[in-house]
Here is the input.
Amino acid sequence: MRGVLTITHFLGYERPDGQVGVRNYIGVIPSVFCANRVAKQIASQVKNTVSLCHPLGCSQVGADLEQTSRALIAMGCNPNLAAVLVVGLGCERFKPDELVEGIAKTGKPVQKVVIQNEGDTLKAVDKGVRLTRRLVADFAMQKREPVDCSRLIVGVKCGGTDATSGIAANPAVGSMANCIVDHNGTVIFSEVTELLGAEHILARRAVNKQVANEILHAIDRTENKLRIVGGDPKYKHRSSLISTGNFDGGVSTVVEKALGGIYKSGSRPINGVVDYACRPEGQGVYMMDSPGHDGEVVTGMVGGGAQIIVFTTGRGTPTGFPFVPVIKVTGNSETFAKMHENIDINAGVIIEGRSTIEDIGQQLFENVLAVASGKMSKAEILGHDELFCIARL
Amino acid sequence: MTERSMIVLHPNDNVAVLLEDIKTGDVCCTKDRKIVAAEDIEFGHKIALSDIIHGTDILKYGEKIGHATQDINCGEWVHVHNIGSERGK
Here is the structure.
């Protein structure tokens, strides 16, 4: 790949709204869970198509419904989807037309099939397959074009953390994040529940006072939420966020735990805080206000326009996202040996003294550009798609 | 005397993280530092890089992760038994 790519470019798919996709899928999105089976059947019959099944869209109200509909629209708007088929039931509160209109604002083609209008499952599947196959045919010839890596939005996340994450994998991803930001790209980090205790350090990285306040507010809101749900007096201190496994692994304080996670966002200034599944307005580092569940965080980042996710894991997790490459990095060489079919990069060589944080950071950056240009991540090769889950309020 | 590896995550840090399990008397090394372990310490845990006086900040990643709740000698294990954190409350 090195011979083909210059270090500042990747090969992507230009979209009408100026975003750039790194994949060229057609998305089949149910507006309500009742349409899941029809959506799945349509996608199974047409190549290069992914369905995004979910358990939502019924009996939701207020801010919760608003977040679900925003996130579903945001899925359709992600540039890794060339076009979208919306599958509705017909009586749901979040109207299929709202989903269609929200996605169509990007200028990409959006089609719709509504089960109650078509008559039954078979008729809806038939119409959906015909519409989708036309969309696939329209985009099959689209070519990748060289684009500047400033157009990349990369989400960074950790899960299945162990003692190696904070000393090898996360620092290496942080070094990669710095490379992306130094090339005017964008990095989104989140997992606000994991940031408690280090808010003063994050606020210091804010580009200005307003952003510093937004960071402090987001962390404050999360802490209040935890206080409401956590009635057990055993958990009244922040230190209870540290698990027994964390202590055994060598983590002594809540600040130390948070710092190990924050490390993967690099060291560049934080330019803003965005709400769940909302797109950053500029480039650089952004914090997304989301709790720590692996799938909910990654889905929020994809909604924020991320074309690629870089995911660190010490113990090893195989998960992926239906239309966004997830690149797995471990700091644990044993995990890498055991799960090499699931994990892309071994940062454990830092611990063994065979490489440095900066070298693995650079290797990761180059791998991100290669994956952006079409190289498949291990999670993609094995068809992993578990990380699509929309957070509820 | 066995040589063992450790990592210092920021130049200002007064603790390092051990990259393997160590025994008392082992020499813990980075490229440019050597510390003799004063006790057995497990992989992933912290070792004091200098004498740390009671009340002094414990620095890892270049940031204060807590303070020493007692005097800690160079080469000793640094963990919940000798670190306090006002941010954990």
